[in-house]
Write a structure and sequence with these properties.
disordered C terminus, 7 strands, 13 helices, alpha/beta, five-stranded mixed sheet, two-stranded antiparallel ribbon
Length: 353
Amino acid sequence: MKYAWIHAQMIKPTAQRKHSAAAYCKALQVSRSGFHQWRARQAQQAAGAGDAHDAQEQTAQLDSAARHIHAASRATYGAVRMRAALERRGHTLSLSGVKRLCRRLGLRCQLKRRFVRTTDSAHDLPIAPNLLEQRFDAIHQPGRVWLADITYIATDEGWVYLAAVKDACSRKIVGWSVRQHMRAELVIEAMQMAIEQERPLPGLIAHSDRGSQYASAAYRKLLSGHQMQASMSRAGNCYDNAPMESFFSSLKNEHLHRLHFETAQQAMDAVFDYIATFYNPHRLHTSLGNVSPHEFLRQYHSRQPSLSDVSAPAAQRDMAGGQAGEGLPPHPLLPSRSSHEIQGGTSQLHHVN
């Protein structure tokens, strides 16, 4: 009651006030801090009634955004990616806040399952040196290093095999092929798709494991014909091609393991759907600063004034004065090589017993 009386005196026009708030508090034997705290609580309560509707609307918008992101990500985003996606929509939450939000809405990330990768390295075909040595973080330009590998997918008609090619910088899947066999044609088709779509410059490193498909004469001829440098992982070391393993894990855990394929064609369609409509254009990558491969490439090329409105390889060819590869900076992972060495392509291949 004392605080209310003091407040009533203080809201009068200045000319009608006889004393200050401090004087009233002293006369009524109450503390000034207590009075100000009481007044702040009263203001909050008054504002709370008016803000209740706004708070409800904000909560509804947040819930709607979280549900949309969960559905658009195919239920693959955990708290870290969900937080990044919400922030892009203007909702800033702590990581623990995102976890509470997902629990309240019943949004759960798809549980992961293990998968097995097979590599036939028991052969006497030529083996290329390991030019990367796991230095994936040193690759700062798209179109410099491609990673390639094979995995398998179960269908009622039997196994089908996926060969994919991934740009080590942008994380974009630049080429792929799905067939019911694991012959060399499988990896050649995937690499040809990548070459046709991306038009790489001479000197690009094509890294793979030591599988017989990648050591085959036809595959090596394809690389040398486009002045690409072959590179292979060490025997039995999956970490030498870790980003490619990561893609296969994402593909299976986020998409394929939820589906049942009666036919090989269904598996082929599912791979296309994941790569072309989700992974490349929309899936956020923490390694790219929580953007998709396509968004990363847009940002990258926007920072290259002379590369606007054209593909990076085509623009670099124009800048080089007509001959592909001239005028380019040295490769970030390798010492400079002469044009004769590059044209040799697979000259560094050696045989293993």
